[in-house]
Amino acid sequence: MKRVFLIVLDSFGIGAMPDADAYKDAGTNTIGSCATSEYFHMPNMQRLGLFHIDGVDVAGKVPATGTPAAKVARMTETSNGKDTTIGHWEIAGVVSEKPLPTYPEGFPEDVLRMFSEKTGRGVLCNKPYSGTEVIKVYGDEHVKTGDLIVYTSADSVFQIAAHEDVVPVTQLYEYCKTAREMLVGEHGVGRVIARPFVGESGNYTRTSRRHDYSLQPPKKTMLSYLAEAGKDVIAVGKIFDIFAGAGITEHVYTTGNADGIEKTLGYLEKEFEGLCFVNLVDFDMLYGHRNDIDGYAKALAYFDEKLPQIMDGMREDDILIITADHGCDPGYVQSTDHSREYTPCLIYGKKIAGENLGTRSTFADIGATVLSYLGVSGDISGSSML
Fold first, then answer.
1. 8, part of any domain
2. Looking at the structure, do residues 58 and 116 belong to the same domain, yes or no?
3. What's the farthest any 2 CA atoms get from each other in the chain?
4. Strand 191-200 relative to strand 211-214: parallel, antiparallel, unpaired?
């Protein structure tokens, strides 16, 4: 019985891609910035071969010695974009040639007018904004008027923030579903995101009841091919939302990295055949977007500390794939947005020999590898690395 555990360290980039300047990301290096922290400590990932990967530069802090215990590769994003949705879709075998729409000047008035008519509420903000800052600036007016805080970022997102005492979370989710039904075609953003918050004036904080409403992938991904072949496709964290449930047979949400790791350890003990697809979001949400180098480094060290427990729980025919969906360099002071970076890929299994596979031409090689290993055919981009 073969099982694949695919873990995405959300935003763990390993250096700017050649076209990064076109995305205003020249010189970004998420791992390089994290390595400047005294808290950066990844001995288990080092043994697997993280520092053998092409171009990984941590200022000589961690040497690449010996033979890697895993197959390792530097992954190139072929899709036109640098966001969560496009990155995960490409991992699953779908390359996006056209970028999803973004709104650096805010959403068009006709879109907001229709949204207000359908929800019966006004709209505040309508600008790209930090999620923590937007509730500081607009939170009081929202509480006073009941108007919804609508904002975006450099990503293709329509985000709706609301205080849980003003708009119950279930109602906020309904508003997001309304927006999702509207935002198709020309304005088909990658994700509509519910951003509930709590607290008093001057001390508003976001809660863990965030919920993402994604576009359906434009074509079948490895997930759908696996499910159609009768395999289990288990989603941990926001994977279910990213793929709008397509091809997923079981899912569970998480409250953060620690919870995601614990739920992964739980699935290691369960009987299933197929894929357990995990997203660990804290790297991106809590640290990358907040330019928190030490926080990011501590989160990486925590994952690395738990890695032996994950590996010890693996069976003879299990494989573990660790990768990322884009970068979010916490040391890049010009921006708090995602960065156009290469990502790492480490493939570990008790029957897999370690080696450096060089630089791969697309994230989709991961999806092709999963299908190949599980013996399922599918019309997706990419080539198997096994």
1. yes
2. no
3. 63
4. antiparallel
